[in-house]
Write a structure and sequence with these properties.
Layout (H helix, E strand, L loop, with lengths): L8 E5 L12 E5 L2 E4 L4 H10 L2 E5 L4 E7 L2 H15 L7 E12 L2 E15 L6
Antiparallel strand pairs: 1-3, 1-6, 2-3, 4-7, 5-7, 6-7
């Protein structure tokens, strides 16, 4: 499991178009998805805006509740559930806003809340 703070965690779809001058350090998280290292949603949004691109929050908030033994696997399972629910929608990133972990008898009970985000080139208007 990459070392990231899960609250504010940003996932980017493999092959997503990014600003050419934006260096993004990331690790594999799930097949087809990478987790951004060293940046939460706020920081990543600011870096995208500095490159004159947009990091748009799409409507809706999605939740998943899962049970597992290991935290890393349980987090992946919860994100996989949310991505399965969003299959067919057009977005290239996901922001995990809330992570609640409770443990009982050696099991991890995890609830996450996430929002779809989309990275896109900013509109350039000529004067």
């Amino acid at each position: 499991m990459p070392h990231v703070s899960e609250t504010g965690m940003i996932l980017i779809r493999d092959g997503a178009l990014l600003p050419p001058n934006l260096a993004v350090e990331s690790d594999a998280f799930l097949p087809g998805w990478r987790v951004v290292k060293h940046a939460d949603g706020y920081t990543f949004n600011r870096r995208i805006k500095q490159a004159d691109w947009n990091f748009v929050r799409l409507t809706g908030e999605y939740k998943a509740r899962v049970v597992g033994r290991a935290y890393a696997g349980t987090l992946r399972k919860a994100v996989t559930r949310i991505l399965a629910e969003l299959r067919g929608r057009k977005f290239n990133s996901l922001e995990v806003n809330v992570v609640v972990l409770k443990r009982f008898v050696g099991l991890a009970f995890l609830t996450i809340t996430a929002n779809c985000r989309h990275i896109q080139d900013g509109l350039k208007v000529s004067a």
